[in-house]
Specification:
Structural class: alpha+beta
Radius of gyration: 39 Å
Distance between the termini: 109 Å
Shape: elongated
Number of helices: 19
Helix content: 25-40%
């Protein structure tokens, strides 16, 4: 290219010399004047062209691409030049079609923005975290599992559930009756207000269902021996359980503001419970130095306008919650639901971590949350950041971004206390950290044929160790979650939040126990499910509204003992109607029969004659035939 331009300049010089030597007498004076003007213009062009050619040759020699980069595709080359960049670290600007003489390298641009490529062995500032990880709730080593459970399932929670469930049932019953749609004998027609004891029995069955998976609710009350489990039927009648599940509510529907109006709250159905749960999570436990920000997903394939899709999650479709967790235990400290709003990443991170500012916590986050803007924002709040970052984030150094690394090679760049690290394992992995400098460690990893040694940046090792907080919580929930199809999104989310609250309960229990006494999550669930069942009164004449009902086949298994019915203040010899005799008479005559007995089966709370009714009741399935 340079030689062709020089040849063109020489030919123009020869033309000028020829015109100067031409001395033909036939040329008019006017023509001589035109020739002089042309010669003047040509001399200016020749001089300018020579200067430009010398600069072009010099530029090409200085910024010639390496041989192994010449094979890049035309498309990528065109895209690079459209951005005004040239491989080799130079930015070229043009004005009115002529190339500018000023050449600015990418490194100069980065240095102008405060970045430096001089590696540091330690951060400019290395503050110390001085707080202690501890339980703030009134729990000690003598506290039971149910005490820790009650930290997050308080009396206010049970009262809220009772009030709103009964309110919703009354509203629906009135609404259907007004329209003439209330069917006699239907669930709502037979509805009676739910009590606190029934709600605790209901939740005990819910915990049982999370431990013992079956295909449907009805399967838990099935009498078929192959799938029979008597626990649910011992506590509550199936129809009563379904009625409570259908009417379960957490807020007053009469206060609901439709979507599209001012003050609309997409989380209205769960708002009282969700806000109280977040408050209890924050005030019951103080975390260690390492915190984790990530998103969790509550699986749901139904219709809700803020449902999301993420192919990398176990539940690909569902509702998203941003969470702040303690990295060591998986304890949830704070939550922010995603409801389709336009909150920025900076707003989400600030809302989650604001209670832990000014303590020099280190927050570990992935590439969705991490950026130089977020790192600077948290550094001003005396909080450090470690995390992967998208390479196209605004504010990252340009030359560092475009560097091509070999396998196991790394590159560092610093701006104040912020360090940008790029390390190539199988691919480039960019990191941002305000905790580490340009340091690395040799580690032993698994490789083909055995073990191999590899160097890794310290920020990568630290990130891999502490990024598991939210994942640990997700792992517990996925094992023992109530997986039931539900048309109501908020019920699916409610039981999802209940499972996460149970994980927090287990964390504070294990935190106060020595290592040999700590429980697995399944063991903790079993203890809580049994512990919330209210103690029975032996003077009860019978179960109320299905509570404490005995499974029809639980009488056929296990060990059974007969006792006398306890006396009362008013009556020394208490008698009740024998169940076997009454059912037999009713089957034979169609009328209710009465035969009094002083004996009963205490576990079932069923009055029975000593002989033969007690034996018949516990050995014959259809004892009344």
């Amino acid at each position: 290219m340079a030689s062709s331009q020089r040849n063109r300049a020489i030919s123009m010089r020869e033309i000028a010399d020829f015109l100067q030597d031409d001395d033909d007498s036939d040329i008019e004076e006017a023509q001589n004047k035109e020739i002089e003007d042309l010669l003047s213009d040509l001399q200016v062009v020749v001089a300018s062209q020579e200067r430009h050619d010398d600069g072009a040759v010099e530029e090409q020699e200085q910024f010639r691409e390496p041989v192994n980069q010449r094979g890049r595709t035309r498309e990528r080359t065109q895209r690079r030049f459209r951005r005004g960049r040239q491989r080799g670290g130079t930015v070229r600007s043009t004005t009115h079609g002529r190339s500018s003489q000023m050449q600015i390298t990418l490194r100069e641009m980065d240095e102008a923005n405060g970045w430096t490529y001089v590696p540091r062995e330690r951060p400019l500032e290395d503050p110390v975290f001085e707080e202690v990880c501890r339980v703030l709730a009134p729990i000690d080593e003598n506290s039971s599992e149910i005490d820790c459970f009650s930290v997050f399932f308080t009396n206010d929670f049970w009262k809220l559930l009772k009030t709103e469930t009964n309110r919703y049932a009354a509203q629906m019953k009135t609404k259907l009756a007004r329209r003439g749609l209330l069917k006699p004998g239907s669930m709502l027609d037979k509805w009676t207000p739910v009590t606190l004891e029934e709600l605790k029995l209901f939740f005990s069955i819910i915990i049982h269902m999370s431990l013992v998976h079956k295909e449907s609710f009805d399967a838990y009350w099935s009498t078929r021996e192959i799938i029979h489990t008597p626990y649910a039927a011992k506590l509550m009648n199936r129809d009563r359980f379904r009625a409570i599940y259908s009417c379960l509510h957490l807020n007053d529907n009469s206060k609901y503001i439709p979507r599209g109006r001012d003050n609309y709250d997409a989380f209205f159905k769960l708002r009282p419970y969700f806000d109280e749960l977040c408050r209890l999570c924050a005030t019951s436990f103080y975390p260690g130095e390492a915190l984790t920000i990530d998103e969790g997903t509550c699986g749901f394939r139904g219709r809700v306008h803020f449902r999301v899709f993420n192919k990398d999650k176990p539940d690909k479709y569902g509702m998203k919650i941003y969470m702040l967790c303690d990295a060591a235990t998986g304890y949830i400290l704070n939550m922010v639901p995603y409801v389709g709003d336009s909150k920025t990443v900076e707003q989400i991170v600030t809302e989650l971590s604001e209670p832990y500012f000014e303590k020099w916590h280190t927050i570990y986050m992935d590439r969705f949350f991490s950026s130089p803007t977020v790192a600077d924002l948290l550094w001003l709040k005396n909080t450090r950041v470690v995390g992967t970052v998208m390479p196209n984030r605004r504010g990252l150094p340009q030359e560092w971004r475009q560097q091509l690394l070999e396998v196991n090679e790394m590159s560092f760049c610093h701006c104040g206390n912020l360090t940008a690290c790029k390390w190539k394992d199988k691919r480039d992995v960019p990191f941002l950290t305000t905790k580490h400098a340009a340091t690395w460690t040799e580690v032993t990893v698994k490789a083909k044929g055995g073990l191999a040694k590899k160097i890794k940046p310290d920020c990568v090792l630290d990130y891999n160790k502490n990024k598991i907080g939210v994942d640990l919580n997700d792992q517990y929930v996925s094992y023992y979650a109530l997986q039931r199809k539900c048309m109501k999104w908020w019920k699916k989310m409610f039981f999802h939040l209940v499972a996460r609250a149970m994980v927090n309960s287990m964390v504070i229990y294990n935190k106060q126990q020595p290592a040999r006494c700590q429980l697995r999550f399944s063991q903790f669930l079993m203890a809580c499910g049994e512990g919330i069942v209210p103690a029975r009164s032996t003077d009860d004449a019978g179960p109320s509204h299905g509570a404490h009902l005995i499974a029809k086949t639980s009488r056929l298994v296990g060990r059974h003992f007969i006792e006398r019915i306890p006396s009362t203040e008013k009556k020394t010899k208490v008698t009740r109607v024998c169940k076997v005799c009454a059912d037999t008479i009713k089957h034979e005559t169609g009328k209710r029969g009465r035969k009094e007995t002083v004996f009963y089966f205490p576990d079932c709370n069923v009055p029975l004659c000593n002989d033969p009714c007690f034996k018949k009741y516990h050995t014959v399935k259809n004892y009344h035939l």
